[in-house]
Hints:
Blueprint: E1 13-14, E2 36-44, H1 47-57, E3 60-64, E4 68-72, E5 81-85, E6 90-97, H2 104-110, E7 114-115, E8 126-131, E9 137-142, E10 182-192, H3 195-206, E11 209-215, E12 221-227, E13 235-236, E14 240-244, E15 249-257, H4 260-272, E16 276-283, E17 290-295, E18 301-306, E19 310-311, E20 318-321, H5 344-356, H6 361-372
Parallel strand pairs: 2-5, 6-9, 10-14, 11-20, 15-18
Antiparallel strand pairs: 1-20, 2-6, 3-4, 4-5, 7-8, 8-9, 10-15, 11-12, 12-14, 13-19, 16-17, 17-18
The structure holds fe (ii) ion (FE2).
Amino acid sequence: MSHTKVLxxxxxxxxxxxxxxxxxxxxxxxxxxxxxxxxxxxDKADLDxxxxxxxxxxxxxxxxxxxxxxxxxxxxxPAILMASKAKVSRYVGAAFVVPPDTDFExxxxxxxxxxxxxxxxxxxxxxxxxxxxxxxxxxxITDWGTVxxxxxxxxxxxxxxxxxxxxxxxxxxxxxxxxxxxxRLGHVVMQTTDFHTMADWYMRQLGVIPSDVQxxxxxAPFLTFFRLDLGNTPADHHTxxxxxxxxxxxxxxAWEVNDLDxxxxxxxxxxxxxxxxxxxxxxxxLGSQLFDYWRDADGYAFEHYTDGDVFTADREPHYGPFTTxxxxxxxxxxxxxxxxxxxxxxxxxxxxxxxxxxxxxxxxLMMGRVVDTPARPWK
Length: 379
Ligand SMILES: [Fe+2]
């Protein structure tokens, strides 16, 4: 452990200047290019409690029946979250908007897609449902309806004063005491035991581009932040993240709020209503978002964010080592709950992974070193 208490940012390399031992992430030809992350779908054992959490989080109920919940944000998407009543809570999958000329027949023929009935998509759409390699349902939809956006308050800091610069003169900052307004769904992060298969599938089916690739000690990519390919239109630094790990699961999703004040006020509302705060407020390193993480009653993580990076399609992918210190630039230390708990259940999972050959002991030790290496020198 260092006692110098000097922070070190992890190294970062553009793809054109990779160290010799780092492998480039192979990029397959895309079958179609997604233009938008539309909504997420969950099964929930307690739909009332789920609705309470998401409402305090800033989502707005569009419709609710005994067994179905549809919620929107302030933007023009008819829905950004759908939940169904079920015996067991689980993440079901995500829906993405694809161009109208997408060859749905070919997807049914070659990729095992099945057609979606128009009425299952709030706002109406054509599309298909696919299964990703881990069994998450991925809906590709087009001709999706829109709704009128809800009025947003003005950003609180169009002119933020900084040291030596005070553009805000004779004007105060007064924030409303209210839940954060979620404008839209930003990204979804999935953990997998087979990074390469999952990453390849998402690049092929959604045309997503690597923004930042993290590799293990052996130089093999292990986690990638992917953005949509919108050409010259700036896209969020990441819309889909595929993270190598010890299980296939939903990791978290992130929802964009108005601004920094919405993030802070939103935290107060969630806190006073007894929800489970996980991590924040801080600033991420990769993607640069200001973040605040919460867990719902089932333990699923949901992130509020604002002020994220946006890149056009031509921005070169960057690479860096897979390390916990790359998770955040400042804020509270990353909580232990972000990493696998060393429980008998986890040990059993690891034994099964080793036996099946899905992970090697060498790789397991590399992953363990990452988790056990303190992200900050004072830990
Ligand atoms: Fe995130």
